[in-house]
């Protein structure tokens, strides 16, 4: 943990259909069109490639009301930070509308900004950290080795899907080519995972190495292949994509 605050873009992933665990409290059920899982990302320019949302099945999440009358779902720790950043209905206090475990929110349909998939699903990832961001992670398997490895696990392991009530259709999403990176091509995460022999999300050391290799190269040399900033370099448009999401009210800034 550094001393300087880390700034994240919180991507608002709208719940299209409330699962039972979110219907049981009226304050949430009555806002069924305005309930969002909020995912902390350092790479807003990759949102064109979202294929799913990761939750930790054993983590605890809460729902809170925002100052704009929406409902955000995150860890309690993140909600507390949001309360001090003017994001929630009341400043400096967290009033949970409900509490839920990640495994109660699996297979939920979401509408996420910029991605070409109209509906994507919440899926389990065992390595989601409680003490980073919101505990909600948006998945971009084209550009994030962790996301690619975890998605491949779910595609290849029926028992893992069954354990969390995930159907084959919920993981039948291909990585979307969104950024060209010299040497790694337009699907940099799958390419590096295959060349390093990464087999699953449990290959922690190899994944850390893969992430490091691809991350800087994508930032400094990557070129967007889709969207309003097609043909431009990642480092020149990261801020513009972030501004676009903020203007459309599809994201908020958050730090910790
Ligand atoms: B990034 P840093 Cl395409 N547990 O977003 C585990 N991982 C988490 C998390 C948590 N609680 N909260 C956020 N993250 C992930 C996109 C992305 C990300 C791409 C490529 C690299 C990348 C799509 N997933 O991150 O430790 C989120 O994944 C590599 C650094 O604060 C977030 O950005 O540096 C990143 O980790 C934040 O990690």
Notes on the protein architecture:
By secondary structure, the chain is α+β, with helices and mostly antiparallel strands. The chain has one domain: Isoleucyl-tRNA Synthetase, domain 2. The chain contains 8 helices and 12 strands. β4 and β5 form a beta hairpin. The longest helix is centred in the C-terminal third of the chain and has 18 residues, at 204-221. Ligand A2H binds at residues 6, 40-43, 46, 128-129, 132-133, 135, 137-140, 143-144, 147, 211, 215. Belongs to the class-I aminoacyl-tRNA synthetase family. This is leucine--tRNA ligase.
Task: Count up the domains.
Answer: 1
Q: Which structural class should the secondary elements be placed in?
A: alpha+beta
Radius of gyration: 18 Å
- What is the overall pLDDT average? 97
CATH homology group: Valyl/Leucyl/Isoleucyl-tRNA synthetase, editing domain
* SS field, number of helical segments: 8
- Please estimate the helix content: 25-40%
In whole angstroms, the N-to-C terminal distance is 10 Å
